[in-house]
Write a structure and sequence with these properties.
Length: 194
């Protein structure tokens, strides 16, 4: 994993139509998709599984919802560091991986291409398992805290939004949206969005 600034994220995903927009008064640095592309998409959503023990498995399934091999960008738009908060844990994890910049300066978390659908521990390397584990851990913390952000896969405009404790899957393909609905149902995710 390496952390990305707004410009680095735009450079990486600009061809897919993504850019970064700053909203300083709201304390946000939003990852946005070109409105022409976004207007062709529909979303389905729900809340994370009510049993916190299921969050890592849910996060793994969300990651697998994206294309198998495309690199991932986990973007954090907005977070809280009120007490109590996982902010210190989140920042400490980044520091442990060598990141010295603040979450404000580098809100993107880039994970390189690998076979994300592969679950056989005898097939994937220890480094691949570690990388996926870090991604799943960060996603789980975002869901626990109800932070806002996105999980996108390079080479695709399909996206997953974390928003105020809700999870939304966006796609222009009916089959992808059906798959997202099945995923939410399989984990018993409440659909009464707040």
């Amino acid at each position: 994993m390496r952390c990305l600034t707004s410009q680095e994220a735009t450079d990486l995903l600009g061809r897919e139509g993504f850019s970064v927009r700053s909203n300083t008064p709201m304390g946000r640095t939003a990852l946005v998709l070109d409105p022409t592309i976004a207007s062709s998409q529909t979303r389905v959503g729900g809340r994370p599984p009510p049993n916190v023990r299921h969050l890592p498995h849910f996060a793994e399934a969300m990651n697998r919802w994206h294309s198998s091999n495309g690199a991932r960008l986990l973007w954090v738009d907005h977070w809280s560091n009120d007490f109590p908060s996982m902010h210190a844990t989140f920042v400490s994890l980044r520091a442990g991986l060598g990141e010295t910049r603040s979450l404000s300066d580098a809100p993107g978390h880039y994970f390189g291409s690998q076979p994300y659908h592969e679950r056989d521990q005898s097939v994937i390397s220890a480094e691949q398992a570690r990388t996926i584990g870090i991604l799943i851990g960060l996603m789980s913390m975002i869901m626990i805290e109800g932070w806002d952000g996105w999980l996108v896969a390079q080479g695709s405009t399909d996206r997953i939004e974390f928003w105020e404790g809700n999870i939304f899957f966006y796609s222009s393909e009916a089959l992808r949206l059906s798959s997202a609905n099945t995923l939410l149902d399989d984990f018993g995710c409440p659909r009464n969005l707040e």
